[in-house]
Amino acid sequence: MRKPVEQIEEATILFAGDSGDGSQTIGTQMTETTALIGNDVATLPDYPAEIRAPAGSLAGVSGFQLHFSSEQIHTPGDLCDVLVAMNPAALKVHLQKLKPNGILIVNEDNFARRNLRLAGYESNPLEDGTLAKYQTFPVELTSLTRKSLEATELTTREMDLCKNFFALGMILWLYNRPMEYAMKWVKTKFAKKPQYIESNILALRAGNIYCEATEQFAVSYDVKPAVFEPGTYRNIEGNSATVLGLIAASHKSGLPLVYGSYPITPASDILHGLAQYRNFGVVTMQMEDEIAAVGVAIGAAFSGALGVTGSSGPGLALKSEAINLAMIAELPLVICNIQRAGPSTGMPTKTEQSDLLQMFYGRNGESPIPIVAPSRPFDCFDTVYEACRIAVKYRTPVIFLSDLYIGMGAEPWKIPHLSDLPEIRSDFAVSADTSNGFEPYLRDPETLARPWAKPGTAGLEHRIGGLEKSDVTGHVSYDAENHEKMVEIRAEKVARVANDLPPTEVFGAQEGEILLLGWGGTYGALRTAVENCVAEGLPIAHVHLRHLNPFPHDLADILNRFKRILIPELNSGQLRQLIRSTYLIDAIGFNKVQGHPFHVFELESKIDEVLNEIGHL
Amino acid sequence: MKKKRKARIPAGAPTLTKDDFVSDQDTRWCPGCGDYSILAQTQRIMPELGIPKENIVFISGIGCSSRFPYYMDTYGFHTIHGRAPTIASGVKMANPDLSVWVITGDGDALSIGGNHFIHLMRRNFDVNVLLFNNRIYGLTKGQYSPTSEQGKATKSTPLGSLDTPFNPISLALASGATFVARSLDRDPTHLRTIIKSAFEHKGTSFIEIYQNCNIFNDGTFFQYTEKETKADNTVFLEHGEPLVFGAQHDKGIRLNGFQPEVVKTINGEYTTNDLIIHDQYAEDTTLANFLAGMSDTPDMPHPMGIFRSVRHPCYEDMMTNQIRTAKERMGEGNLNALLHDGETWTVP
Fold it and tell me: Quick check: B98 and A456 CB within 8 A?
């Protein structure tokens, strides 16, 4: 008889083990299956900077958290309903994230003395009462996997590599998910190593059957599909969406894409992604350093291509002089910064939003550059496309300020129709239309953009460079008045980007007590917290900025409609500083600099605190 | 001659002259600077290259020499210190039909831009690099450079510099450069010939040009450039010819084991048959390295001319080829199909 199935609304699962245990793989597979059967889903990979830290050590623990629901969700969840811990170290690192009475599945085979010692356990937590408040399921994952593979020719070592699929089989059973998508993936992944197709599928089935057959698991759960707008969907990670957005911008504008990069976590996936698409004419160049990477992008832009470079904070520090060259030369350039925790090398595999002021101010002289930030994984597509649009229209470098959390996180994406994407017009200069010949700094009166004349165009030969330019002619000029004028023109040009922006969306109350103002990857946590407040009838609103430089024209008015402006950021208050100085508003900060995203409950208690202060509660 | 892919001036088009390459900007180098000659020879040789001037791009870094693009009536980009090779690589990659020229100096190319210099050489983009070597920082008013001789007293090294200088030819060879040459600001005919050969070479062409800074390092190369001493202190490389030099053509270079040495070929125990026969097309760089090392050896003449000229695939052609092959194999990229790649589901 089939065991009973309990309907629930949502669940959060955390897979954790050694870096080599395959937690990321089964997390991704569970995400794919869950998205394909129609739940809304959000993920948070959490892995160490070391490729293979010593096995069983706390430093080597790699985790993958996913949250899925029959409702629309925006975050990978605060606390977990299920923790799968492949060893004592994984248990030690992640147990605090498991809800009381949550389901804990541990690989009992790995709880021998040596592993316990490596994780710093004095006694065995499976026996000493540590886990009393959880539903603990010790499973001999390693032995059971080996047993299921007895009939194969695999070595013991190879068998052990399949134990993550045994665990996946269990979780698929627990949440009533089909195994077909995982099997399909295994078949593609190991197309050239058929012995691993069989073994992983055997392990997957064995895990599934184990749950059905043993008395350990009495009940399984089902989460009904969420209601989505009509459309075709796929699951996508932020960095993949960035790749697609860049290719889309190249396609729509007719400009060939040249991407210069140097490997760095967490931006390398954009280089890897784009490198697959030579058949789209995409040129990717892995250069000798960060400076060369931006250099080729600038050179390509001068030649008339869509020049793009990508990196993370430390790389951006190295690129800053070259970005300034593109700024004064007024060439289109897109710079992707996938932020990670700084300063210096910082914490390469942890998220943070602490490069905002670096992007605003980290160049010598007066150097205004438009900045846009995506809010969630799929939003990387539209936001990087917008960066390309601004760069080409205004002939300026534009910074696309993403972060590790959304770059590596995944969620369902409603695939856009190509015809809905805004136009990007290159409008190259083709002839010199003044009596003085070609004037490279004669501007479009509306946008203040200068002409983009690519080498190869007869009659438009001209020289540009990093020395100050004379207005209109572009000749080198050290004239005092001209310098000030050029500084003002460059600032005004960037300010005019705001003329293109749609009205800012205010979610929740349109005026009232508190406005949560956010930017970048904190969208999910902020929106969920505000949704919860609004559901309680509180006069709270949420505005999430995509355009950070320039700010939208209507922002001043919106800020004035609320008693308090609360700006939660994963830094020490960088947007807050900009808002305070721009609008002379005493904005309140809520700041977390731990390398981890906000939890919804943290935001909710901060909102309560502020409401208390202003006497609302 | 090797086939070039650069667009040619169509037959019947007006012939260009030197003046067509002179921009409307006043040249602002110190009077007497060697840069004037290099500029003049470049402007003179341009019409002979047979390409429309709109297809020519000059890219420079920072330093006295790097003002060069402003004076050429072509496309030009005066970039940032040391980074011209990176920007030139991007220009060439995005439009392989352009004739791209990098103008740099000893500080720009070998100090702040040393990393980009070696990587440009190994990638073998079809670009031409003119390195104006004056063994000094001129624009910043007289500090020693990475080619200054050890012990040089300058403003920043009053007691003498401590670092061993780079040999730009050796560095280029070690980096896999496919065309490596040296010339002199004060030998216009030779300089024009070498610039033209560099243009005709398909791949990265590197020319070290001995250039006099008459303000901060006057005469540093005079023994190689001045009439009285030049013949005895330089040896002009000609492919297939023995290495003969001297005012009386009475000296030559032979290999003694692994060591090049100067020998008398008239009234001595050696004849020209004993001398090194230059082979600029040798794939192996051993000979070129011997020749390069001569300028580090006291009392040896400095070789001028083409050390090495070999044909290797160019980065931009290989990239173009990858794109063509990918399109043949997978078909021209279809954006809509790409967006729908992988598992999708439809909500009605």
Answer: yes
State the average pLDDT for chain A.
Answer: 96
Same domain flag for A291 and A394:
yes
A469 and A515 both lie in a single domain: no
Domain around A384? 234-420
In A, which residues are within 8 Å of B59 by CB distance? Answer: 299
Distance from CA of A237 to the nearest CA of B (A): 13
- Asked if A24 has any chain B CB less than 8 Å from its own CB, the reply is no
Subunit contact A231:B346, Cβ cutoff 8 A: yes
Whether the link from the prior residue into A343 is cis, omega within 30° of 0, is yes
Give the integer Cα–Cα distance in Å for B314 and B62: 26
Give the one of A232, A235, A291 whose C-beta lies nearest to B86's C-beta. Answer: A291
Answer yes or no: pTM beyond 0.90: yes
| Cα-trace Rg, chain A | 27
Looking at residue A85, its amino acid is A
Token digits of residue A61: 């623990």
With beta carbons less than 8 A apart as the criterion, state whether B87 and B59 touch. Answer: yes
Confidence at residue A615, expressed as pLDDT on a 0 to 100 scale: 86
Which residue in chain B is spatially nearest to A226 when comparing CA positions? B347
A460 and B CB contact within 8 Å:
yes
Closest alpha carbon within chain A to B342: A234
A214 and A136 both lie in a single domain: yes
State which of A464, A482, A500 marks the end of a domain.
Answer: A500
The sign one gets for the Cα dihedral A414, A418, A420, A423 is positive
pLDDT band at A430 (very low <50, low <70, confident <90, very high): very high
A278 neighbourhood in chain B, CB within 8 Å? 322-323, 325-327
Residue A229 in any domain: the answer is no
- Three-class SS state of A515: strand
Do A325 and B326 make contact, defined as CB atoms within 8 angstroms? no
A371 contact B CB<8A = no
Residue A82 and residue A215 share a domain: yes
Report the percentage of chain B scoring pLDDT > 90. Answer: 93
Contacts of A457 in chain B (CB under 8 A): 54
Between A141-148 and A163-174, two packed helices, what is the crossing angle to 10 degrees? 100
A402 near A336, Cβ under 8 Å?
A: yes
Among residues A542, A553, A547, the alpha carbon closest in space to that of A373 is found at A547
Structure tokens at A333: 């350039």
- Count of pairs with CB atoms under 8 A, one residue in A, one in B: 209
Are B59 and A459 within 8 A, CB to CB? no
The second-level CATH assignment, the architecture, of B18-241+279-330 is 3-Layer(aba) Sandwich (3.40)
Q: Given A171, A197, A223, which residue is the final one in a domain?
A: A223
Query: Does A36 contact B at CB distance below 8 Å?
Result: yes
**Amino acid, res. A76:** P
Q: Tell me the CA end-to-end span of chain B in Å, nearest whole number.
A: 65
CATH number of the domain within which A127 lies = 3.40.920.10
| A414/A433 same-domain check | no
User: Mean pLDDT, to the nearest integer, of B32-56?
Assistant: 97
- Contact, A23 vs A64, CB < 8 A? yes
**B2-33 tens-digit pLDDT:** 444 556 777 777 789 999 999 999 999 999 99
pLDDT tens-digit readout, A178-210: 999 999 999 999 999 999 999 999 999 999 999
Residue A228 maps to a domain: no
In angstroms, the separation between the Cα of residue A440 and the nearest Cα of chain B is 11
Same domain, A249 and A372: yes
Tokens at residue A482, please? Answer: 């001209």
pLDDT, tens digit (0-9, with 9 covering 90-100), for B99-117: 999 999 999 999 999 999 9
Tokens of A453: 């004349």
Pinpoint the residues of chain B covered by CATH 3.40.50.970: 18-241+279-330
* CB pair distance less than 8 Å for A295 and B87: yes
Six-digit token pair at A268?
A: 């390398």
- The pLDDT score that the predictor gives to residue B7 is 62
